[in-house]
Write a structure and sequence with these properties.
alpha+beta, Jelly Rolls, ten-stranded mixed sheet, EC 3.2.1.40, Bac_rhamnosid6H, 47 strands, Rhamnosid_concanavalin, alpha-L-rhamnosidase, Immunoglobulin-like
């Protein structure tokens, strides 16, 4: 099945040295060896590696077997496929079964005829169809026992034989759950089953528990907490999704002789309450160690005094195998210092605003109560500041059992904090006894950015930490106060930055399915996903509801994920049609609830909304979403829709100009945001565009070279300035230390992104108490400008997912060095520039099986060299254009180094 090699190659060139060419990182649906997936036709991706430049795949072969790592019996063999596709290669074999292990291997050939070895992986399906579930929902009415807030624990014993081949446990809950098998807690996934609109979509998890099962009698234990399902969420006191916690579990044992055994949740289980007497996502957790039931999940435990469970006749139509990545502990940190504040008990300072919880060890008398109160910042006197938490308590309590050295770690609550005040601790509070556990969705970090300005490097760290703290199963706005909701506006403005920092393909695919599930029949989109405001008229705000279109398109651009685009297309189309049909004017949007340019600095006193007219913003985003929908239709081959929505966008733009642009080409709104949106979304052209560009520059100058934008204007401000040839202004804004600016908060000691530009003022006072998060990633969208403009790494919409790469760095005054890397689906991309002693050096790395276009700024062709060679003599380099002191080159894969004399340009470009 070998592909045909180039007949002009010599025999030496055809022989493959496995060190010179091969494949690696064979993944299934973005994951390494996933267990419990629900995709019925998975896609495979891999990366090529090899020495030299110009590595391109000429073909591939994939084989899949069912539970056969030797591949003796195949259920699919692609055969030799002449194609350079190495990302999202679709499985085209027979139907996959539930609860089955599949082995996959792939090999490839390059265009020089070199052949790789086989690269192997596996994947395992979960319970694919909800109708296959055999278990019953179990619950226990604790309110009858006057213990409504206490967490129920369930247990069951069973016997297992030998020899055992494999054991898989499938579980979910209405609430949060944890499983123990023979006294061992399954810790590889936290806060399961995650957050969805539970009546429509409820994820189920798969666990490999083979090593936990023993011959003879075994026991399973379950603990169920309120979580998002029954606990306090948004503005709801309790019981938003339901008023009863319940669990569903199946354990499947497979023996070497092929026989099977199944243990299910049913009426034979027993229930009690454990030591966790309260657990709330907002308020914390209370653990009374005196109520511990030693060995309660062990086989020998006597449960004769426990309550019988109740069987709950509830449907299973909403069950689906887990789509999201797991929530895990990604980092552990010790306090950087412990200090005594002017008022109150000792405070632990972990040196970093984070999301998670604190564990500790203690020796105390029975009944001794230790409290940890969590907060992000200190007040001007050096005391813990908790006013911005609003009604969230963020307090964990531990009541000692009095049996010597005891350890406590919360399990069903998380806090947003840098500081924790310790109350009631017996003895010395020292750093060895306390550990912060950083909790987040398990996202692979894919991007780095650094430069010659240490404050910018800290800003990049703040952006990453803000993403880490808020990407916890859903993209939340903040992790500390009584909100923590999946605001659509925050997600869409930050999504491109997020996709550079981390691999968010699976994370956003799950969230977008939640969005589609909660979308209104009219096509409107709730402002939070999952929807916490059903029935309210406050939905479908411009820049918020547009996440329905912006986010799928961004995932397509960054990952080349055509399947997700197709999957979300009906939702995208429904949103645009909602915009078309709402209000009195088909081509303008001037109705409905609007946030406007949220938290803009030009907001009138007492208002959260900036001065830019809401109908101007709404119409601008209407045009933008329609444009992206048209592009999506083209990508999906929907020719009629492409023409239809291109025409619709044309009409919207015409009406935008009639409504918001004067006859002399002036925007009616003299705000930075109005001008930025008009330019960035391509709503003005020709002489009008030139005037809007000049007006934007003048507005920035009149503001003292400061920004006045909010949530909707800020993400586009610096990119727009760079695109109109004024990177010098973009640099001036981005590198400013004054209030307001990104670096102002950094200079104030911030370790995450603030919700407000002036969340903490220079005199130590605070912006407000009611809406002042210090971990709110929206303004961190500046990260996109650092990656795409300062370092210059971008994808090509026509060849998305970085199959073709654009590298166009924009050096500017204030930096003499910048470097960004990005781990794409094809491999690592690097762009680095450095100005030293009048010399510009640009280094790039282009991964195998891709190509790139690079634009070298401020240079003449005859003055540039690549590793000491003239461009015409450099391997893998082709000169394609010369204009405006710029050289445009086409590059094959490989590493390159360009050098030339540098003259500071007159503008930012």
């Amino acid at each position: 099945m070998r592909l045909k090699a180039d007949p002009n190659l010599s025999e030496k060139e055809r022989r493959s040295d496995r060190n010179d060419f091969g494949i690696a990182e064979l993944r299934v649906e973005y994951r390494n060896n996933p267990i419990g997936i629900g995709v019925r036709a998975p896609r495979f991706s891999w990366q090529l590696f090899g020495a030299g430049r110009g590595i391109r795949q000429g073909g591939y072969q994939i084989q899949v077997s069912e539970d056969d790592p030797q591949y003796r019996s195949l259920i699919w063999d692609s055969g030799a496929v002449n194609s350079d596709q190495s990302v999202h290669v679709l499985y085209e074999g027979g139907s996959l079964k539930s609860r089955q292990v599949y082995h996959v291997r792939a090999r490839a050939w390059d265009t020089k005829g070199r052949e790789s070895g086989w690269q192997s992986a596996f994947f395992e399906t979960g319970i694919l169809d909800f109708g296959e579930w055999q278990a019953q929902w179990i619950t226990c009415d604790l309110e009858m026992q006057h213990r409504a807030e206490a967490l129920p624990i369930f247990r069951k014993t069973f016997e297992a034989g030998s020899p055992l081949r494999a054991a898989r446990l499938y579980a979910t809950a209405l609430g949060l759950y944890e499983v123990e098998v023979n006294g061992q807690r399954l810790k590889d996934q936290l806060l399961t089953p995650g957050w969805t609109s539970y009546s429509k979509r409820l994820q189920t998890q798969t666990y490999d528990v083979t090593e936990y099962i023993q011959i003879g009698v075994n026991a399973i234990g379950l603990t169920i907490a309120d979580g998002w399902y029954k606990g306090r969420i948004g503005g709801h006191p309790r019981d938003f999704y339901g008023d009863r916690r319940a669990a569903l579990l199946e354990l499947h044992l497979i023996y070497e002789d092929g026989s099977k055994q199944c243990v299910l949740t049913d009426g034979s289980w027993r229930a009690e309450t454990g030591p966790i007497v309260m657990a709330s996502l907002y308020d914390g957790e209370t653990y009374d160690a005196r109520l511990e039931k030693d060995g309660w999940s062990m086989p020998e435990y006597d449960d004769r005094g426990w309550l019988p469970v109740e069987i709950w006749e509830r449907g299973m139509h909403m069950l689906l195998p887990q789509e999201n990545v797991s929530t895990v502990i990604v980092k552990e940190m010790k306090p950087e210092r412990i200090f005594q504040p002017p008022a109150g008990d000792p405070i632990l300072d972990f040196g970093q605003n984070l999301t998670g919880w604190v564990s500790f060890t203690v020796e105390g008398q029975p009944g001794t109560t230790i409290e940890l109160v969590h907060a992000e910042v200190l007040d001007s006197a050096g005391n813990l500041y908790v006013d911005n938490l609003r009604s969230a308590k963020q307090t964990t309590r531990y009541i000692c059992r009095g049996t010597g050295n005891e350890r406590y770690e919360p399990r069903f609550s998380f806090q947003g904090f840098r500081y924790a005040q310790v109350k009631g601790y017996p003895g010395e509070v020292n750093s060895e006894r306390f550990t912060a556990h950083v909790v987040s969705s398990d996202l692979e970090e894919t991007g780095t950015f650094e430069c010659s300005d240490p404050l910018v490097n800290q800003l990049q760290s703040n952006i990453v930490w803000g993403q880490r703290g808020n990407f916890l199963d859903v993209p939340t706005d903040c992790p500390q106060r009584d909100e923590r909701l999946g605001y659509t506006g925050d997600a869409q403005v930050f999504i491109r930055t997020a996709a550079h920092n981390m691999n968010v393909a699976v994370f956003f695919a799950k969230w977008l399915r939640d969005l589609k599930a909660d979308q209104l029949p009219s096509g409107g989109v709730p402002n939070t996903i999952p929807d916490t405001l059903p029935g309210w008229e406050m939905h479908s705000a411009a820049g918020w509801g547009d996440a329905a279109v912006i986010c799928p398109w961004t995932m397509y651009a960054c990952y080349g994920d055509l399947r997700l685009l197709e999957e979300q297309y009906a939702s995208m189309k429904a949103w645009v049609e909602f915009l078309r049909n709402s209000g009195e004017q088909e081509y303008l949007r001037n109705d409905g609830f609007q946030f406007g340019d949220w938290l803009a600095l030009d907001a009138p006193a007492g208002s959260y909304t900036g001065a830019t007219p809401k109908d101007l913003i709404a119409t601008a985003f209407y045009a933008y979403s329609t444009d992206l929908l048209a592009k999506s239709a083209r990508a999906l081959g929907k020719k009629e829709d492409y023409a239809k929505y291109q025409e619709l966008r044309t009409r919207i733009v015409e009406n935008f100009n009639r409504e918001f642009v004067t006859q002399t080409g002036r925007l009616v709104s003299p705000t930075q945001t109005a001008h930025v949106l008009a330019l960035r979304f391509g709503l003005v052209e020709g002489a009008t565009r030139k005037r809007v560009e000049q007006s934007l520059i003048r507005l920035i100058e009149q503001a003292g070279y400061k920004l006045t934008t909010g949530f909707l204007g800020t993400p586009y401000l610096c990119p727009t300035l760079s695109e109109i040839g004024r990177s010098d202004l973009a640099y001036r804004l981005a590198l400013s230390r004054d209030d307001p600016s990104w670096l102002y908060s950094v200079a104030q000691g911030a370790t995450t992104i603030w919700e407000h530009w002036d969340g903490r003022k220079t005199d130590g006072s605070f912006w407000s108490a009611d809406m002042n998060s210090f971990n709110h990633y929206a303004f961190g969208a500046i990260g996109e400008w650092f990656y795409r403009f300062v370092a210059g790494i971008d994808t090509d919409e026509a060849r998305p997912g970085f199959k073709h790469i654009h590298v166009r760095p924009f050096p500017g005054e204030g930096l003499h060095y910048a470097r960004a890397s990005y781990q794409s689906m094809y491999g690592e991309i690097v762009s680095q520039w450095k100005i030293d002693n009048g010399k510009m050096q640009i280094e790039v790395k282009i991964p195998p099986n891709t190509t790139a276009t690079i634009v070298l700024p401020n240079v003449l062709q005859e003055k540039v060299s690549e590793r000491g060679r003239r461009l015409g003599d450099a391997e893998g380099v082709r000169v394609v254009a010369l204009h405006d002191n710029q050289v445009t080159l086409e590059l094959e894969s490989g590493s390159y180094q360009f050098q030339y004399d540098w003259r500071t340009p007159s503008s930012g470009n």
